[in-house]
Amino acid sequence: MKKLLLIVAIMLSTAMLFAPNISDAQVTGDINGDGRVNIQDVTLAASQYMLESSDSGYNATIVGKADLAEPFDGRINILDLATLISYYTG
Length: 90
Hints:
By secondary structure, the chain is mainly alpha-helical. About 50% of the residues lie in helices and about 0% in strands. The termini are far apart.
């Protein structure tokens, strides 16, 4: 019985070592990287609404995560915000 428990423990430890880390998975629409889509993400995306890369306050990291709808043009437009809000509201 002890051998069986030891074998099971080793197998579980090995499986956990090679299993992908769930927390590393990206959630589409999660702008701030907290693992979920919430009002903070919507606020961050809205802060970039219609800004060009040459505009003051433009944040390429936020825009890259929030440019969710066609055209994927490096600008946050109303379609991007609507898509993000649909992810937020489910």
